[in-house]
């Protein structure tokens, strides 16, 4: 190596050693006869020192030419520092430089390369290679690398085989939109990029691989939001001869290992909650259960007392905010404004203050007596000093609105600590969901998910009621992974496609190979996939998955650094047998 | 799990235990009152036993329905076997079955699922999920998984960070043909799939990542041969602040670790050989040095003796085949036929037998005296009993032909043992190679490879002579990996593009981001990429990379199992802004 040590490794015990370091100039201070330069690499920062008189003149001259982000190679002797810096591990020493070589210069960077940068999002993305030079960003990608290693080692230990499935596959109409790749050798035909390796991993189970995993890129040509990327990474897993409980246990184990190995956190229980309960108690299929504030249904107590808004509502539901009875008018108005925001869409908010003296004060005192309100408080488990917040309307909408309010209150009250991790398995998802737009049922998870045996009879009579052997792993209100026990026989799979509106021909053309495979001894199997980008973000305590992707695309699907996508020339189009419209 | 044990784990020490196994019916033998079924899973085979009288009648009835590849769940007691099978680890026991459930039936498979199958290539590819059920095929993919783990653990240990680079990138005209992906959000523009993450890994070096690796899918839209796939996998690595020697040492270490950890083989020396020497001594830039048989140039000795074919040749070159003086007419004719095959293309073959009695017998006795032939033998180091084989013609062609003959002889003489592994670094590759078709220089490695400093002056005067800081790792005559020390300054990179025939505008449009990056403190860096599919094949002692890919494509780029590529509908084309021609 051009260096003998990294910029993060020298200590007082190395004093008097002759060393060579390579790195980037973080900053220099020139105090007349004395000059210091902080040299940075991935491993740390080490101070170089130069002194008029003792440093060779040509070295000092070179040192004075150094600008920010110059790359240098410095050789010298490790000496104890006069004024030590206890904030960094190398702060006890400096290098008395004896020779200095500029390996490469640098223009002035377009933004400051420090944790606290002055660069805006767009500029940082255009110069992503400089953004990645910041400790904060690089350390996020190091976390990602560590996490992937921890996952792989755990799964290999558990006899999982990593198998690479193809990237150039077949377009299917189900699910999100595919990216497609025109075939030159088969003109007029297209490959598709996989939205997931779902069918391949199921085929590997048919092949007897028993336990499969892969950390794999997947692709969806969807309109993008802040937390969506056209290409994303999954931890994709599948097991044979298992029931749901086996999968939950295995991946509880994997999740515990990740937290323990990478964050040093020992997770507590992984409770199970049905989808129906999650919706009823939290209005959300991925509830954040770091805090309580469960929904309390008040229809019985609140209706038929003359308050027409509640009387006409399908659902009247409240939550109890502990210790918030002292909220001011202004604070309460802010909450009302919050729930009335268009993206939440409530019409108004009713509150009940449980005063310290045992009395009640509500925004609907006109309609309800102290006794009425006491009954609400009892039902909500509210004590003196608490605040009850109530919403009403159609059941589904009101639950969604209340979920937002609950999360908001949880945040306001500091109940959503980023360093507390609370996992939860949500189970018993519906098999199908009605799509108003296309007026047909869609698979809630995907068409390969098995219905619960005891609900099979409902498929013909009340398909929306059929529960699936499907589950999600939720941590802190973020869906981290999801999966299901799969269908493994042709007849059930065909029935499923029928219910999803496929003709027999369509089903055969798209998934004939899978249904064929089911006829040659397909074992019972199931699996799960984790969104790796989101998992990394959650691990790092961030909301933005983009921070955890080395070269992300913007919300128009562009990589502004390399300027992609871009046009291709006519000859290439011709070879592919396509024209631009 | 539906099972208590796998089919590979029960031993005599488990006798009398009640167990449940799941697996596939490999075969059944019904001898009247007694019946045995071999149950198979990924882990092994266990014998189930049924006996009229002691086995419950309904279990026996179910057992008699079992066909090949049925999936069953069997519960019973482990008992010692009457006649043991020492060939398998579970051969000492069998399961006296007490209950039996058919989890799934199977149609008769289209080919026999055993190591020695009767299925042809095409049939096995169509039913790849059944082909993968064969031990031989599955174990190849298990080897692949293990090898990837060994690589990752080694590199992580050496402070390499695994970073995922994007799959949707930008099309570039350099190198092989890109697969492209039409962009819906940016109609008329296309992403390209990466042929390698080359520019991204270099940018990561600019970012100070110091040591990067990735096991990553790459794509080339080339016409396919048996050992080429449109998507393939690379172990892609890059390091900063290194010279060539550092890279060779690091990846010698990685290679040693792979062989030691996965095959239990301790590799010997990794000699270095220049490209020029490899071509001169072996006529090949990836020589198999498990055996000698180095080229001996005979121009001086063989020319001007009246044999016009040699006299007119640019090169007369021989090899010495030890102990082959006794070759018969027929054997010699076969060698002549071999070198005259169109894919080799020699016009003829000259031989000299060094007889046991010290005399010589050659196919050109008319032109050469015993003394002449003795001089050849001396130069070739041939002893009594050896055979000298000689080719002549233009230097490049003759070397290629002789290389083929040498490899052929090595194989015939058993000098190319599959269990001997002989690594070799080939170094000092030419920077550029002349392309007759386009009448310009192409980068031999890629345009980011640095020229040797001492050869820089030749760039303008004799570009073909410039050597690059480029190297290949060759094992047993197979190129396993290749890389280079990169250019890390804008001026040299621009010069390189100029020599490759790029206009300034083209260079900027395609690689402006990289050249820009070089102006912000790019460190000296270099790297290497290993062809992972080929590495696996070499590890497994196979020539076919396809065996080591779970779902390969055929030579028309088709996946015959899922029937891909396929047509897409008009609406999708419209959304993408393209038409079929």
UniProtKB/TrEMBL annotation, chains A, B:
Compartment list: Cytoplasm
What name is this protein filed under?
A: Aspartate--tRNA ligase
Taxonomic lineage from the root: Bacteria, Pseudomonadati, Bacteroidota, Cytophagia, Cytophagales
* A GO molecular-function descriptor: ATP binding
Q: Decide whether keyword Endoplasmic reticulum is in the record.
A: no
Going by the UniProt record, its keywords in alphabetical order are: Aminoacyl-tRNA synthetase, ATP-binding, Cytoplasm, Ligase, Nucleotide-binding, Protein biosynthesis
Q: Where is the Aminoacyl-transfer RNA synthetases class-II family profile domain?
A: 141-552
Subunit annotation: Homodimer.
Q: Which residues bind L-aspartate?
A: 174, 220, 445, 486
């Amino acid at each position: 190596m051009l260096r003998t040590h990294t910029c993060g490794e020298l200590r007082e015990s190395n004093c008097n050693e002759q060393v060579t370091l390579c790195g980037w100039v973080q900053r220099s201070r020139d105090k007349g006869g004395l000059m210091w330069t902080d040299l940075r690499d991935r491993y740390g920062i080490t101070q170089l020192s130069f002194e008029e008189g003792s440093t060779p003149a040509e070295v000092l001259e070179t040192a004075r030419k150094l600008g920010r982000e110059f790359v240098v190679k410095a050789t010298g002797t490790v000496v104890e520092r006069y004024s030590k810096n206890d904030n960094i591990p190398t702060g006890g020493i400096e290098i008395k430089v004896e020779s200095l070589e500029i390996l490469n210069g640098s223009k002035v960077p377009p933004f400051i390369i420090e944790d606290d940068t002055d660069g805006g999002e767009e500029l940082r993305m255009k110069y992503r290679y400089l953004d990645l030079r910041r400790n904060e960003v690089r350390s996020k990608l190091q976390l990602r690398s560590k996490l992937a290693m921890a996952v792989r080692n755990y799964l290999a230990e558990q006899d999982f085989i990593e198998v690479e499935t193809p990237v150039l596959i077949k377009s299917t109409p189900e699910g999100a939109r595919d990216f497609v790749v025109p075939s030159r050798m088969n003109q007029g035909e297209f490959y598709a990029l996989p939205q997931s390796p779902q069918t391949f991993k199921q085929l590997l189970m048919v092949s007897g691989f028993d336990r499969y995993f892969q950390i794999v890129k997947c692709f969806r040509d969807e309109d993008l939001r802040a937390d969506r990327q056209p290409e994303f990474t999954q931890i994709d897993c599948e097991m044979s001869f298992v029931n749901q409980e086996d999968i939950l246990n295995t991946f509880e184990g994997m999740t515990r290992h990740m937290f323990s190995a990478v964050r040093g956190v020992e997770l507590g229980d992984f409770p199970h909650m049905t989808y129906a309960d999650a919706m009823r108690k939290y209005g959300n299929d991925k509830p954040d259960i770091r805090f309580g504030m469960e929904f309390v249904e008040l229809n019985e107590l609140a209706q038929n007392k003359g308050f027409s808004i509640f009387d006409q509502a399908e659902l009247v539901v409240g939550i109890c905010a502990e210790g918030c009875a002292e909220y001011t008018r202004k604070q309460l108005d802010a909450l009302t404004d919050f729930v009335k925001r268009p993206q939440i869409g409530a019409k108004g908010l009713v509150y009940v203050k449980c005063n310290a003296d045992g009395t009640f004060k509500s925004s609907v005192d006109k309609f309800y007596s102290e006794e009425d309100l006491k009954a609400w408080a009892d039902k909500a488990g509210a004590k003196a000093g608490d605040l009850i917040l109530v919403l009403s309307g159609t059941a589904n909408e009101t639950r969604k609105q209340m979920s937002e309010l609950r999360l908001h209150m949880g945040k306001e009250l500091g109940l959503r600590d980023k360093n507390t991790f609370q996992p939860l398995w949500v189970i018993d998802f519906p098999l199908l969901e009605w799509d108003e737009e296309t007026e047909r049922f869609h698979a809630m998870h995907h068409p390969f998910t098995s219905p619960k045996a005891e609900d099979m009879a409902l498929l013909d009579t009340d398909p929306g009621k059929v529960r699936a052997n499907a589950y999600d792993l939720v941590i802190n209100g973020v869906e981290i992974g999801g999966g299901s026990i799969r269908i493994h026989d042709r007849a059930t799979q065909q029935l499923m496609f029928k219910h999803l509106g496929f003709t027999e021909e369509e089903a055969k053309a798209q998934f004939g190979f899978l249904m064929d495979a089911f006829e040659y001894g397909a074992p019972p199997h199931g699996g799960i996939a984790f969104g790796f980008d989101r998992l990394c973000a959650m691990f790092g305590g961030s909301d933005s998955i983009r921070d955890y992707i080395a070269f992300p695309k913007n919300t128009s699907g562009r990589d502004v650094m390399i300027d992609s996508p871009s046009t291709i020339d006519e000859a290439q189009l011709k070879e592919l047998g396509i024209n631009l419209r």
